[in-house]
Design brief:
The complex is a heterodimer of chains A (436) and B (476). Chain A has 15 helices and 13 strands. Chain A has helices spanning 3-11, 23-27, 66-73, 112-118, 133-140, 175-185, 218-223, 226-241, 257-272, 291-302, 305-318, 323-347, 363-366, 378-386, 417-428; strands at residues 18-21, 34-39, 76-82, 100-102, 105-110, 124-129, 144-147, 167-172, 213-217, 245-249, 350-354, 391-398, 404-410. In chain A, helix 9 (257-272) crosses helix 11, helix 9 (257-272) crosses helix 12 (323-347) and helix 9 (257-272) crosses helix 14 (378-386). Chain B has 476 residues and is of the alpha+beta class. The chains are: A alpha/beta (436), B alpha+beta (476). At the A-B interface, helix 9, helix 11 and helix 12 of A face strand 15 of B. The complex binds zinc ion.
Chain lengths: 436, 476
């Protein structure tokens, strides 16, 4: 690799992929090291970690995310930080650093990680997936990605948004590279009490689907537009051709997953960003006379519209009289979703669905609602996220404008190799339409 | 009309653990400001709480000594509010599944003994402290106390007088100190009480309007606050004035309670289960391990002192009131000290020395083995009582070795009677008038000569020997 050329390309990025770029890291990288970028909500020692927010524009933590430390120990070099939506609560259009544009068509949006990897700035990206949104952006941005079972990778060092279900994953141009990065960072960590004691992390599965029972999720197919649906059906055919048994299922309880996830995201998001109060670090208003004004103005001036709306919604669902009908109800739904999926996984190995109703959104459409849950795509990742399941995504099929559609494959907790096997098989299979 | 006051208490006790509840910082809020602070307890993002098992153990111990049921599944909840001393803008506590429930504490007042019910005990983290510099007009925050472990012990509304409240707090403090749960020093804020109080007509079933006085940290203030608040309630009832259910503070200068700002009464804490903390499961084996490690509790100890050693009730109670004093006493007795003599020395000399040094019974340090040696010297008649006090003071103040000190300062009982004989002969020769008086039958004259001799011997003479020799010499 010509490092000088690479450096020039990254510096000339027109997509706003990275919020920080470390040319020195790239130049001094050993020959056998692998360049990666990390999402801006992953904490890195002595570096500004803003999580896409003005609130943290000056926050330089004295410690580091466990996943970054493990990646570095495994020979990965961090060459930059990828743009995310503010606090990872929504798409990159909510980032204080501005939106990340789709490298294939800059009228559309994607995530910083997807844009950086798709353009070859780095081999892979370490991402934090919240609600399936980051996986979706990776696939629609033309990349493959893998999120292991909840608890496989330590959440120590994530600037948290959706603590109960967010999980670190890997993005790369092929699923093997993404899985290898996840393999390097997975494992028990005593600094995270929800870390699995013995996570299963053999992700080097073969591209073999012979005999696998794969079910298409009818509800999500029906929610997708015709072209995206057709791409998923094609994938099912390709998997059948490779030896998988294909069936179709309908979700009952799991159909409520998007609403439950929205309630939990609002509550946890509200709580997780409440520590950003202008007192200790980060942004503080220049104009205050007392502590109330310091709080209100610092937060009012430095937190964006979407995060504010989410925090308001969170306060609402946690209020004394709303806790039972909203938050507790959401916990009950999560329990039922898990139960239903457990049942489903007794008769099939994998679920297959589109990641979104269509291709990557137009920048012009993205700002329509400040609530990320109003985006129809939110529903697609909810069930697997609520249940903490392992998910592999990949681009599959192409829209008329040339942008990719995305597929997701998910299995029961702990069966992380299954979605990887299917994703690898699809990657290897010959395709109709354009390859991505 | 006869009124009855109904009181319930919420007592916060800081746990005596090495480290904080959810991070590994030292639990020492007395250190220099912000010395024991890490990114987690300073409220940085990215940190995850990990429950300190020692905290769970202390909470189990607190439950066991207050006869509570220990719950198997323990979850933690987040309580949200904004205040600069709360670094994370939320406090981790137990709302939905407290660790201990349904216990009681036996108390004794002049009216007799009574059982006070414990509704629940839950674990939580403390907040930091604000320091205000009024001259510079700035406020500073010290996070040392952030995430220091606490238990909150919630009683049932079983108290009917301030005396019962004080008896309960004293008993609770003794139980928790023996069990090693906390130091419970109220003046240092290690034990704080919120008082829930209402007044009703005697015989009424229904409770009156309840007010809560927060953050009381001295027995004297608690007594005054209960008296004041009871009076205020009765006054309002008698004059048919409205009483509001509210949170009040206590002004220790004006000796009156005052309504807190409306805001603090209207806060919605947006409680929800902490997704970062999986439940802590407590099995029977763990509970039994904690139970087995508990020392003898104060009631049993006092009963034993009274029954086995014939120590009076008041003295026995005084000894067990301080786990430290009781431990010194137990060790001294185990090493052969006569129990009543040891108790006597500890309750008089030791406490007097401690008081002089500005220490409490819990702080005083005394090597029990040295007390044993001292008492043996005294018993064997090798040391006089006044000299023994000198030696005791030296042991207390400079940790002196009793035997070496006695020798070095010539405090041995003067047993060599030739020296005493010589001295007495001189005294007799120098006081012919007293000798004449004595021989004329005035026995008082002997006391004068005896006094002279004791003065010359600077207290180290054996009084029995001196009287005997004096009689002998005067008879010649
Ligand atoms: Zn700490």
């Amino acid at each position: 690799m010509d490092k000088e050329k690479q450096l020039q390309r990254i510096s000339a990025d027109r997509c706003n992929s990275l919020v920080q770029f470390y040319p020195a890291a790239l130049q001094e990288m050993p020959a056998d090291a692998v360049a990666i970028v990390v999402d801006d909500n992953l904490i890195q020692r002595d570096t500004v970690c803003a999580a896409g927010s003005h609130m943290l524009y000056s926050f330089r933590p004295p410690f580091q995310a466990e996943a970054i430390t493990r990646a570095q120990a495994a020979g990965y070099t961090v060459i930059g930080r990828a743009n995310i939506g503010e606090f990872n609560m929504a798409g990159s259009e909510t980032s204080w650093f501005g939106p990340t544009l789709h490298p294939q068509d800059t009228a559309h949006l994607t995530s910083g990680a997807a844009a950086a990897v798709a353009q070859g700035f780095a081999e892979a990206a370490l991402i934090v997936d919240a609600g399936g949104a980051n996986l979706r952006q990776a696939a629609l941005g033309g990349c493959s990605a893998f999120r292991p079972t909840y608890g496989s990778v330590s959440r120590f060092g994530i600037i948290a948004f959706l603590s109960s279900s967010e999980q670190i994953g890997g993005v790369a141009r092929d699923i093997d590279t993404a899985a290898a990065l996840v393999q390097a960072v997975a494992g028990h960590d005593e600094k995270d009490a929800t870390s699995l004691p013995k996570p299963q992390y053999d992700y080097a599965a073969a591209a073999d689907v012979a005999g696998l029972r794969i079910a298409l999720v009818e509800d999500l197919l029906a929610a997708a537009g015709a072209p995206a649906r057709a791409a998923t059906e094609q994938a099912a055919e390709a998997l059948a051709a490779a030896g998988a048994q294909i069936s179709r299922i309908r979700l009952r309880q799991a159909a409520l997953a998007p609403q439950a996830l929205a309630v939990m995201a609002a509550a946890e998001g509200c709580n997780n960003i409440s520590r950003f109060d202008g007192v200790k670090y980060g942004y503080r208003t220049a104009n205050y006379r007392n502590i109330e004004e310091l709080y209100c103005r610092s937060r009012g001036e430095a937190i964006g519209e979407t995060a504010k709306c989410l925090a308001m919604l969170g306060s609402l669902v946690l209020a004394k009289d709303n806790y039972e009908p909203y938050y507790r109800k959401a916990l009950q739904v999560r329990y039922l979703v898990k139960q239903e999926l457990d049942q489903i996984f007794t008769s099939c190995d994998l679920l297959l669905a589109p990641v979104a109703p269509a291709e990557a959104p137009l920048a012009a459409d993205a700002a329509a609602s400040p609530f990320p849950f109003c985006d129809p795509a939110h529903a697609f990742g909810a069930a697997a996220t609520l249940a903490g399941l392992p998910v592999a995504v990949l681009p599959y099929g192409t829209a008329e404008n040339g942008l990719p559609f995305g597929l997701q494959l998910f299995a029961d907790s702990g069966h992380d190799s299954l979605p990887l096997r299917a994703a690898k098989a699809l990657q290897a299979a010959p395709r109709k339409g354009g390859a991505c | 009309m006869a009124y009855e006051v109904v009181i319930g208490l919420e007592v916060h006790v800081e746990l005596a653990t090495e480290s904080k509840i959810f991070c590994s910082c030292a639990n020492n809020s007395a250190a220099a400001a912000n010395e024991n602070v890490c990114p987690a307890c300073a409220g940085m993002p990215g940190l995850l709480p990990v429950t300190n098992r020692a905290v769970v153990e202390k909470a189990i111990a607190a439950g066991l000594v207050t006869n509570c049921h220990i719950n198997r599944v323990n979850t933690f909840d987040k309580k949200n509010y904004y205040y600069p001393d709360l670094s994370n803008s939320y406090q981790i506590t137990q709302l939905y599944a407290p660790i201990c429930t349904d216990g009681y504490v036996e108390i004794e007042t002049e009216a007799g003994s009574k059982r006070i019910g414990i509704k629940q005990i839950h674990m939580e983290e403390d907040a930091g402290k604000l320091l205000h510099d009024d001259l510079a007009g700035i406020s500073m925050v010290d996070y040392n106390r952030c995430s220091v472990p606490l238990v909150e012990i919630v009683s049932k509304p079983d108290f009917r007088s301030a005396a019962e409240v004080i008896a309960y707090l004293e008993k609770l403090r003794a139980l928790l100190r023996y069990a090693g749960v906390g130091h419970c020093r109220m003046e240092a804020g290690l034990m704080r009480a919120d008082i829930n109080l209402s007044v009703r007509e005697k015989g009424d079933e229904k409770l009156g309007v309840r007010t809560e006085i927060k953050n009381m940290n001295s027995f004297a203030a608690i007594q005054k606050a209960i008296a004041y608040e009871t009076e205020r309630h009765i006054d309002a009832i008698e004059w048919d004035e409205p009483l509001v259910q509210e949170t009040r503070g206590w002004d220790a200068v004006k000796n009156e309670s005052f309504a807190m700002r409306e805001k603090e009464n209207a806060t919605d804490y947006l409680y929800f289960p902490d997704p970062d903390l999986p439940p802590v499961i407590i099995d029977e084996e763990w509970i039994e391990r904690v139970r087995a490690a508990l020392p003898e509790m104060p009631d049993a100890k006092q009963a034993r002192y009274q029954a086995d050693f014939q120590i009076k009730r008041k003295e026995a109670a005084q000894l067990v009131a301080s786990p430290n004093l009781a431990a010194i006493f137990d060790a001294a007795v185990a090493q052969g000290a006569e129990p009543r003599e040891a108790a006597n020395w500890l309750l008089t000399e030791a406490l007097a020395c401690a008081k002089k040094a500005g220490q409490s019974a819990d702080e005083l340090q005394l090597d029990p083995q040295k007390l044993v040696v001292l008492l043996a010297e005294l018993k064997e008649g090798r040391l006089t009582r006044p000299n023994a006090k000198l030696v005791f003071a030296a042991i207390f103040e400079e940790d002196a070795e009793p035997l070496a000190y006695i020798r070095a300062h010539g405090l041995d009982q003067v047993a060599d009677d030739s020296a005493v004989r010589e001295l007495l002969t001189q005294i007799i020769a120098a006081n012919p008038k007293s000798v004449a008086d004595f021989r004329a039958g005035k026995t008082k004259a002997l006391d004068f000569l005896f006094g002279q001799a004791m003065r010359e011997l600077k207290g180290s003479g054996d009084p029995k020997l001196i009287r005997q020799l004096l009689n002998e010499l005067l008879a010649q």
